[in-house]
Specification:
Helices cover about 45% and strands about 15% of the residues. The chain folds into two domains: about 130 residues, Rossmann fold; about 100 residues, Rossmann fold. β3, α3 and β4 form a beta-alpha-beta unit. The protein has about 250 residues and is of the alpha/beta class. It starts with 8 loop residues before the first strand and ends with a helix. Strands 2-1-3-4 form a four-stranded parallel beta sheet. A four-stranded parallel beta sheet has the order 6-5-7-8, with helices on both faces. The mean pLDDT is about 95. It is built from nine helices and eight strands. The radius of gyration is 17 Å and the shape is globular.
Amino acid sequence: MKDQLAFRKSFGVLGPSTNTIVQPDFDDLRVPGVTNHYSRIVVEDANAISNETFMAGTLEISENTLDAVRGVLTCNPDHLVMGMSAVTFYGGAEGAAKWKANIEAAAGIGLTMGSESLVAAIQAYGGIKRVAFLSPYFPVANEQVSRYLSDHGITTVRDECLRCPSWTAIAQVPEKSLIETLTRLNGDDVDALLQVGTNLSMTRLAAAAEKWLDKPVIAINTATYWNALRQNEIQDKVYGFGKLLETR
């Protein structure tokens, strides 16, 4: 018997309890027959973040992820989707693969995560070798993103970290600031612009920016949900969120 609403797939979505963007973003990207079931990774809101406390806070989220996995498994999802991207870049390609394998072993089902989804999206566009990216992170975490991309043959030309002062403040970054950041990052020396940090609202802005920058602009939430669909052999196109979901 199939779930009446999830007659194709049900996704267990894992995200920090402080994240207010992933759940509505993923619901916007949902297609008929697929349902999302959000499980919160409990973490206190962080304040006065620094390089050191950013890493410590994200590692706390990582350590609490399995509790959220156990919670969402009670609804028997078909697949897991990670709605927090920072820890999925840590340790480069090897570290990220080990992290994913640990979650999948505990869950007994597959997991889609942001780091691998970003690379899959880059490969789907084709011809992307040099990128610039923005994040709500601190420099220490941007270094991990650059390392992960480098492990997959992608060169980071430049990057910006917004150094958001708390986890919840990430969702409050004004669109105007994001547009200004994209403009600074853009140049003839980059093939695409990327955004990481799942609590940063960029799905619609990235789609619009592709038009006025005339190059791929890939938001982490769009890439992650697109990859989850494609990994589950769901090829539906979703319009209004950029070329990735419309053509690939």
